[in-house]
Design brief:
Strand content: under 5%
Radius of gyration: 17 Å
Number of domains: 1
Organism: Weissella muntiaci
Protein name: Fructose permease
Pfam families: DUF6198
Shape: globular
Keywords: Membrane, Transmembrane, Transmembrane helix
Distance between the termini: 21 Å
Largest sheet: none
Number of helices: 9
Order of helices and strands: HHHHHHHHH
InterPro entries: YczE/YyaS-like
Structural class: mainly alpha
C-alpha cells in the first residue's frame, strides 16, 4: 500500500507531460461523471444513480435549479470552492498555490460537465426494457471506473487537483497512511451532508442507486489499483 515513505519527493516528469496527463484525466473525469448522470436519468425505473459526489451535487441541482444542465456546472463549481476551503482547514495551513489550483481545476471541469451533460442528454434515449437496462448499468459502472482512473492519474501528476480529490489525497496521506479506500470513504462525509440537505428540500432519489453503491464500495479501490496498473510509469509527484 502506498504511503508517505514511498512517495516521490521530487518531480520526475516534465511540465508538458504533466499538462498532457492532466488533460487526459480531466476529460476522463468529466466524461465519466456525465455518463453516470445521463444513464441514471434515462433509465426507467430510476435505479442506477450516479457516482457519490456526482449524485449529491446533481440532487442539489435538481432541488434548487430544477435539474438545469447549465446550472449543473455552476453547482459543481460552487461546491468545489467550499471543498477547497475545507481542504485548507484539514491541511492545517493555507497554501495559496494548492487553494487556487483547486479553484482553477473547477473552471474547465465545470464547463466540461455542462458541455457533456447538454450533448449526452439528447444522444441517450430513454430505456424501459431489460436489455437496455443492462447496457445502461454497464455504462454507468464504466463511468465510475473512468472517474476512479482519472483521480489516480491527476493525483499522481499533482499539478492541480479537483477539490474533492485533493480532500481525498489529504486524508489519504496525512490521516490514513496512504490507504485509498478508507480515505475515499472518509471524503464522502461532505457529499453525504449535501445529499441529506437536497432530499429534505426535494424528496427525490433518482440520483441514487446501484451506481452510487458501486462507487461508494469500489471507487477508492479502483483508484488504488489504477496507481499501479494505469500508466504505471507515472509515479506520485512531489507533495508540497
Amino acid at each position: 500500500m502506498l504511503n508517505h515513505r514511498t512517495l516521490n519527493r521530487s518531480t520526475t516528469i516534465s511540465f508538458s507531460q504533466s499538462i498532457f496527463y492532466f488533460t487526459i484525466s480531466i476529460l476522463l473525469n468529466s466524461f465519466g461523471n456525465v455518463l453516470t448522470i445521463v444513464t441514471s436519468q434515462k433509465m426507467h425505473p430510476a435505479i442506477l444513480g450516479s457516482a457519490y459526489w456526482t449524485a449529491t451535487q446533481s440532487g442539489f441541482n435538481k432541488a434548487i435549479f430544477n435539474g438545469s444542465a447549465v446550472m449543473l456546472g455552476w453547482t459543481f463549481f460552487g461546491f468545489g470552492v467550499l471543498t477547497a476551503l475545507l481542504n485548507v482547514i484539514l491541511q492545517g495551513y493555507f497554501d495559496w498555490k494548492k487553494f487556487f489550483g483547486n479553484i482553477a481545476f473547477m473552471v474547465p471541469f465545470s464547463m466540461l460537465i455542462s458541455f457533456f451533460a447538454s450533448e449526452f442528454s439528447g444522444l441517450f434515449p430513454e430505456v424501459h426494457h431489460l436489455l437496455g437496462g443492462i447496457g445502461y448499468t454497464a455504462l454507468n459502472f464504466l463511468g465510475v471506473i473512468f472517474i476512479a482512473i482519472a483521480i489516480s492519474i491527476y493525483q499522481r501528476v499533482n499539478l492541480v487537483l479537483h477539490p474533492a480529490d485533493d480532500l481525498m489525497q489529504i486524508l489519504r496521506f496525512k490521516y490514513f497512511k496512504g490507504n485509498a479506500v478508507v480515505a475515499m470513504w472518509a471524503s464522502y462525509i461532505p457529499p453525504t451532508i449535501i445529499g441529506i440537505i437536497s432530499i429534505v428540500i426535494l424528496p427525490d432519489f433518482t440520483n441514487y442507486g446501484l451506481g452510487t453503491i458501486f462507487a461508494f464500495i469500489f471507487q477508492g479501490g479502483i483508484t488504488g489499483w489504477a496507481d499501479n496498473h494505469i500508466i504505471p510509469g507515472l509515479k506520485h509527484q512531489r507533495i508540497n
